[in-house]
Amino acid sequence: MKARIHKFVQNGTYILLDINSGAVHVIDKMIYDIMDTFTGGNDAEVIAVWENTYKKADLAEALNELHALMDEGELFAPDIDVPPTFKQKGLVKSLCLMIAQDCNLRCKYCFGDGGSYGQERAIMSPETGMKAVDFLIKSSGPRKHLEMDFFGGEPLINMKTVKAVTEYARKREQETGKKFKLTLTTNGLLLNDENIKWLNDNNFSLVLSLDGRKEVHDAMRPDVGGNGSYDRALRNFHKCLDSRKGGEWDYRGVYTYLRGTYTKKNMDFTKDVLSMNDEGFDILSMEPVVLKDSPLGFTEEDLPRIREEYDKLTDAYMQRHREGRGFFFFHFNMDLSNGPCVAKRLSGCGAGHEYFAVAENGDLYPCHQFVGREGYRLGSLDEGVTNTELPAYFRESHVLNKEKCRDCWSRFFCSGGCHANADLFHGDIRKPYEVGCEIQKKRLECAIYVQAMLELEKLEKEDETA
Amino acid sequence: MKHIKTVNKPSMQKTLKTGGCGECQASCQSACKTSCTVGNQVCEK
Ligand code: SF4
Ligand code: SF4
Asked: What is the DSSP string of A194-220?
C-alpha cells in the first residue's frame, strides 16, 4: 500500500508528516506510538492495543486530536494522482550550456573527466551559444522566465563565448519580452577583478565550488599540475562576495553561493560546512559525490555514518542559528507552507523535457550529466530535437511512474531523484539509485525537523509578546 | 491541542487544481549543480 504518513524522531523530537497534504505535526511519544495502529477509523483497536501502556483517557484525547486533523485535511489526506495541470508535453525553460568542455582543474571526482565528458577537449563557439539563445526562446512558447546556466568544465576559460551569449540574450530579451536568469558555475581560479566586475554588471547568479577545509579541498581539487587550488579559489571567492554585499545587491534577485562535494574521504563533512561558514560565507551547500566502483564513492555500508553526520550538521546548524549567527544551508531550506505545486513536484528536475544541455558542438542532451552518454543525444541546435521519443519518456518518468517512488514517503519532496544517477547505476532512468535515496530521505527528515523547530520558536516568541 | 502541534498550513492539495504554470526554476539535484531539490523550492506565484 502507498505510504500515507511518515514518522520519525530527530534529536528527541517526534515528528509526523502527512504525505499527501504535506502537513507536519510535532507530536508526543504517545501519538508516535499509536500511529503504528491508527488508520483513521479504528479507535477501538487503538485503545485495545495501547491501554496497557497509556491511560484510557489520554488515548481518547489523543484520538480526538487525530480526528480533528483528519477533518482539517491534515492527516490521511487523499492520494494524489497526476493532476490535469500536469501537461502532457513540457515546454523547455532552461538550458545548460557547456561553455567549455575543458578545465583548469582535475578534480578527483569529476563526472566530466576533467571537463572533457569523455570527448575531445573543446570550447563552445559564440555562434553556437547564440543559437542556443534562439533555440530556448523558440522552444519555451508562452513561458516568460527562462534560465541559462553557463557550465563546463570551467566556463571562465571561454569568456569570449560567455560574453557574446550574454549580450545576445539581453538583446533578445528586449525584442521578445522574455526574462533570462543567468547562472555561472566556477571553480574560482579565473575569477579575477575584471571577470567579477563583468559578472556583477550583468547580474549573474554564481555557484562557487569549494569543498570546505583546505586539506580536503586540496586533496580533491588539484590543478592540471597537481597543486592544490584552495588558496587561490578562496582568495577570489572572498573578493567576489565582498563585491556583492549590501545596498542594492539585496534587490537584484541574484544569488551567490558556495557549494562543496563530500566523498568517502571526508565523512565528517560538518567540519567542512562549518569551515566555509567560519570563512565568512553563509549561503552553502554540501553534496554527496556520486560515483560507481570508486574508492571515493559511497555504498550501503556507509549509510549509518552518513546519517550520523547529518544529525551533527543539523545540531550545528540549529546551534549557530540560536546564537544569532545562522547560515543558509540549501538542503535544510524548505517552505513547508508554500512549496511548489503538485505538477512541479511530479516533474522534478525537468531533465529531458523542460531542461536540456547543449554540448560544446551544439548537440542536445537531457541534461549536463547525460552529455556524451550513449543513446541520449536528442538532436542539435541546427536540426532541433530529432529524437522525440526520449523527451516524452523523460516527461512520463515522473515520480508516480517509478515503481520504487510510488510508495516512498518522500515522493513529493524528492520527486523521484536524479535520472542520470539512476541510469548510471541501473541503466534505467526509472530505477532510482538506492544510496542516493537513503541520503535524500535523511536530509529531508533533517530539513523538516529544522523547519518545524524554527516555526515553533517563532510561535513561542509570538506567545511571549502577545 | 495537547499532544499535537501542527507547524504549517500546507497548500499541496490546493495546487492540484491551480498549479502547473511552470514559471518556477528548474531544480537539478545532482552534486555538481545548483542542487535544488523540489522540496527546497518555493512557488514563484
Ligand atoms: S528517488 Fe528514492 S527517495 Fe526519491 S521518491 Fe524515489 S524512492 Fe523516494
Ligand atoms: S537528471 Fe540528475 S543531473 Fe540531470 S538535471 Fe536531473 S537531477 Fe540534475
From this structure: HHHHHHHHTT-EEEEE--SSHHHHHHH
Cα→Cα distances A22→A16, A310, A447, Å: 10, 22, 13
In chain B, which residues have their Cβ closer than 8 Å to the Cβ of A333? Answer: 40
- CB neighbours of A227 closer than 8 A, spacing ≥ 6? none
In this prediction, residue B34 carries a pLDDT of: 56
Pairing of strands A179-186, A145-152: parallel
List pocket residues of ligand 1, CB cut-off 6 Å: A 399, 402, 404-405, 408, 410-411, 414, 416-417, 432, 437, 440-441
- In this predicted structure, what is the pLDDT of residue B44? 61
Mean pLDDT of A310-325: 97
Element (H, E) at A24: strand A23-27
Amino acid identity at A386: T
The nearest CA of chain A is from the CA of B45 a distance in Å of 10
Per-residue CA distances from A355 to A147, A159, A200, A254, A258 (Å): 9, 23, 25, 20, 23
Confidence grade of residue A466 (pLDDT, cut at 50, 70, 90):
confident
- Nearest CB to B19; choose among A23, A289, A341: A341
3-state DSSP call for residue A193?
helix
Q: In the numeric block, which cell numbers belong to residue A60?
A: 481518547
Structure-block grid coordinates of residue A219: 586533496
